[in-house]
TrEMBL record:
Species: Alkalitalea saponilacus
Names of the cofactor(s): Mg(2+)
Keywords: Hydrolase, Magnesium, Metal-binding
GO BP: any one term: NADP+ catabolic process
InterPro entries: NAD-cap_RNA_hydrolase_NudC (IPR050241), Nudix_hydrolase (IPR020476), NUDIX_hydrolase-like_dom_sf (IPR015797), NUDIX_hydrolase_CS (IPR020084), NUDIX_hydrolase_dom (IPR000086)
Molecular function in Gene Ontology: metal ion binding; NADH pyrophosphatase activity
Family in the record: Belongs to the Nudix hydrolase family.
Pfam families noted in UniProt: NUDIX
Taxonomic lineage: Bacteria, Pseudomonadati, Bacteroidota, Bacteroidia, Marinilabiliales
UniProt name for this protein: NUDIX domain-containing protein
Entry-linked SUPFAM superfamilies: Nudix (SSF55811)
Cellular compartments per GO CC: cytosol
Occurrences of domain Nudix hydrolase (ranges): 39-170
Length: 176
């Protein structure tokens, strides 16, 4: 009951209630003819390792999935490059300076927020940071921890897309 077809009832252009879903990916207004498409929002996730080879994971401070493990990152702002979004998010959340990044993999996700499903495409990057000196937690995270990739409990990961990104990384480096 959170999919756009269940939530969106009025045309955002003229306010008409004659706003119909054609195929669960698009809507058309019967009054003004406005077409609305449900697209994926871009989000970024960082895989950052410390000197022991442990992965930096954060704890979500907010719902959905408050308290669960997540990778640092977040949504890409309109007009922003995904690389710039990743650098910004790591600075905002953890006060860390990204010095290099390498694209790894993407995975689709359904992010339910405020009773509405936002479809996302989560882009995973392997990153290096200048130093962990000054690391802190801010923004929408309540803490962080370092865990060896092979010791991460998948049942504690906040979403299927983040689980898939971490699993892909573990296969990429030869750990399961």
């Amino acid at each position: 009951m959170t999919d756009p077809v269940d939530v969106i009832k009025y045309c955002p252009k003229c306010g008409s209630s004659e706003f119909y879903s054609d195929d669960k990916k698009s809507f058309t207004c019967g009054v003004c003819g406005f077409n609305f498409y449900v697209n994926s929002a871009a989000a970024v996730a960082a895989l950052i390792l410390n000197e022991k080879g442990e992965l930096l994971l954060t704890r979500r401070a907010l719902n959905p999935n408050k308290g669960m493990l997540d990778l640092p990152g977040g949504f890409v702002d309109p007009g922003e490059k995904v690389e710039d979004a990743l650098i910004r998010e790591i600075d905002e959340e953890l006060n860390l300076e990204v010095t290099s990044l390498r694209y790894l993999v993407s995975w689709p996700n359904r992010y339910v927020f405020s009773g509405y499903t936002v479809f996302t495409i989560d882009l995973g990057f392997v990153c290096e940071v200048k130093t962990f000196d000054g690391i802190g937690f801010h923004d929408d995270i309540s803490g962080f921890e370092f865990i060896a990739p092979h010791k991460i409990d998948n049942s504690q990961i906040c979403s299927e897309s983040i689980r898939q990104i971490i699993d892909f990384y573990r296969r990429d480096i030869g750990q399961k």
